[in-house]
Amino acid sequence: MNDKLSLFELQKIIRDSLYLSLPGMYWVVAEISEIKENFAGHCFIELVEKHPDEINIRAKVRAVIWAKRYSFLRPLFESVTGESLKEGFKVLLKVAIEYHEIYGLSLVINDIDPAFTIGEMAVKRQQIVRKLELEGVFSMNKELAFPIFPARIAVISSKNAAGYTDFLKHLIGNSYGFRFHSALFEASMQGTETEKSVIDALDLISEHLDLFDAVVIIRGGGSLTDLSWFDNYNIAYHITQFPLPVLTGIGHDKDITVTDMVAYQSLKTPTAVADFLINTVSETDNYINEITNSIIELSLSIINENKEILDKSSMKLIPLATHKIGEEKRKQSSRIIAIISSAREFLFKERIEPANFKSRLLSVTKSFSWEQENRILKYYSDLETRSIEYVKQSALTIETLNNNLGILNPENVLKRGYTMTLLKGQIMKSAGLLNDGDIIDTKFSDGIVKSSVTNKK
User: For residue 109, what pLDDT is reported?
Assistant: First the structure.
């Protein structure tokens, strides 16, 4: 084939072939992966189709909704779904195929079916529910025991959400005066960050389980597509595995998400969640009051019954007690008479015995005094003898020490022929301490001789 085509000519052939092969428009199912609106009002979209694993992409194409058509389709879609077109939405589009020599292949969107998007969300929700049921975890949080005094609440919400403000106001200002303590774990309540932020909040609460009685997830009302962020498998699975009961108030009464389905209790609004907590404490309070009243009534009944028994018993005991007292009086009278008789006998004997005791006591006292006197005289004699011997021994020791000192006196040593050598008044104990030329003093018993060192060996 010798004919040569320019790139432009080839592009025109491709374009014409596409228009001839694919005329008209087609309804296409795709997911929005990226969407932008420019200053002129045109909407540029990137459409994708994912593999069943919902991760890998197997088809992708650019699409556009021209400004005039977009000004009609956007309000239509929002009025039906309650939400604008955004990333992550699965849509059914009516498109025409367009091929441009510079920009390549793209789709021109002519129509959107909003009912399809709503239906897709319902299908997705059903698939998540089915998966949780097959895993056997769907009702695990519902099976937990709800605390009778849920006073410590962990709240997952956006701090700026009106629903959060309503919840706190309703909870704290309850008419019963119950005191609740809440802690906010802030999370995104819509958008692509919803899954991660809610799961992160649950994980953070799980690190402090001993501080809370229950968990509350609230956001207030919103569009159906807004609430669809809670049709999320990972959020739902975390709730089923959570060890504390989870209450939800993330939509209106007609809207229910998978998160609502797996929670311990799903309520219409944040204020309804607050009412549930208040009513739970109120029911417990009423139950305690009922038990208290029952205990009081039962106690009074038992007291009255026992009072009757005591009254009857006292009537029977009075004659017995009177008889017993009479017997005891007679016994005590006999004992008193016997004690008086014994006391008289004892006193008579004691009048005779004191004289004998006095005589014996004087004799014993004299004997003891004589023995003590002799013992003292003996001690005195022994002390005198030992003192004299000690003084003599000490004098002898002193004399011996004095003689030894005389022998060691330097003057006496010199008299025995010894000398002392001094250098500048210091006694020289070794020849090594002297040097040639040193002037030394040699001390004898009768005088001192000065000399000079000339030779040292």
Answer: 92
What is the rounded distance in angstroms from the CA atom of residue 84 to the CA atom of residue 32?
12
How far is the C-alpha of 247 from the C-alpha of 230, rounded, in Å? 14
Q: Report pLDDT digits (tens) over 217-230.
A: 998 655 555 567 78
Tokens 């000079």 belong to 452
Residue 146, C-beta contacts closer than 8 angstroms, at least 6 positions apart: 214, 245, 264, 265, 280
Does residue 75 sit in the same domain as residue 217?
A: no
**Cα gap 53→208, rounded to integer Å:** 35
Supply the pLDDT for residue 332: 80
Domain count of the chain? 3
Structural tokens at position 346: 């004892």
d(CA 192, CA 194): 6
Angle between helices 270-408 and 162-172 in degrees, nearest 10: 80
Domain containing 422 equals: 412-452
| HSE of 40, CA atoms in CB hemisphere, 13 A | 9
Please, are residues 264 and 141 in contact by the beta-carbon 8 Å criterion? Answer: yes
328 assigned to some structural domain: no
Of 285, 303, 221, whose CA–CA distance to 256 is shortest?
221
Which region holds residue 88: left if phi is over 0, alpha if psi is between -120 and 50, else beta? left
Judge whether 128 and 120 are in contact, CB under 8 Å. Answer: no
**Short-list 213, 215, 212, CA closest to 202:** 215
Residues 234 and 91 in one domain: no
Do 263 and 137 have their domain in common?
yes
Query: Is 356 inside a domain boundary?
Result: no
Dist. CA 103–CA 207, nearest whole Å:
53
Give the whole-angstrom CA distance, residue 252 versus residue 82. 14
Q: Tell me whether residue 207 is exposed, middle or buried, using C-beta atoms within 10 angstroms of its C-beta: 0 to 12, 13 to 18, 19 or more.
A: exposed
Residues 272 and 136 in one domain: yes
Instruction: Give kind and range of the element (H or E) at residue 216.
Output: strand 214-218
Task: Label residue 286 left, alpha or beta by phi (over 0 means left) and psi (-120 to 50 means alpha).
Answer: alpha
* 198 φ/ψ angles, rounded to the nearest 5 degrees: -70, -45
The residue to which tokens 């989870």 are assigned: 246
Please indicate, yes or no, whether residues 206 and 241 belong to a single structural domain of this protein. Answer: yes
Handedness of CA 272, 276, 281, 283 (dihedral sign): positive
The answer as to whether 303 is a domain residue is no
The answer to the question of residue 245 being in a domain is yes
In this structure, the answer to whether residues 90 and 157 fall within a common structural domain is: no
Q: Which two tokens stand for residue 166?
A: 């309503």
Q: What is the pLDDT of residues 189-212, one digit of tens each?
A: 877 788 899 999 999 999 999 999
